[in-house]
Amino acid sequence: QVQLVESGGGLVQPGGSLRLSCAASGFTYSRPAMSWYRQAPGKERELVAAITTTDDTTTYADSVKGRFTISRDNVKNTMYLQMNSLKPEDTAVYYCRARLGIYNYWGQGTRVTVSS
Description:
Blueprint (H helix, E strand, L loop, with lengths): L2 E5 L2 E3 L5 E8 L7 E7 L6 E6 L6 E3 L7 E6 L4 E6 L8 E9 L2 E4 L3 E5 L2
Parallel strand pairs: 2-11
Antiparallel strand pairs: 1-3, 3-8, 4-5, 4-9, 5-6, 7-8, 9-10, 9-11
C-alpha cells in the first residue's frame, strides 16, 4: 500500500526557513516522480517544485525560484523541500505528490504559516 507522509510544517517569521519532508513507502518495483504542491486558503492547488525519477532534474514555480530547493534521498525514500526567505504569501498547506505511470498519490499535507 502506497503511503506518503509529510512533515516539517509550522509557523515561521518572514525571512525564515523550513524544511519539509515527504516519506514514501509502498513503491516496491519502481521509483515515482515526485513533486510538491501547495494550496493557500481560497486558492487552487499549485505546483511548487518537481524532481524527476531518472536524473533528478528539478523544476520550480517562478514564485519560489531561488528560494526553495527540492531534493530526494532514494535510500531513505524521502523527498525534501528546503524553503528559505519565506514570505507571507508562502502560507499554505503543502502536499507531496508521487506519480507512477497513470497513478497519482497524495500525502495528507503539512501546514506552513509565515507570519510575524
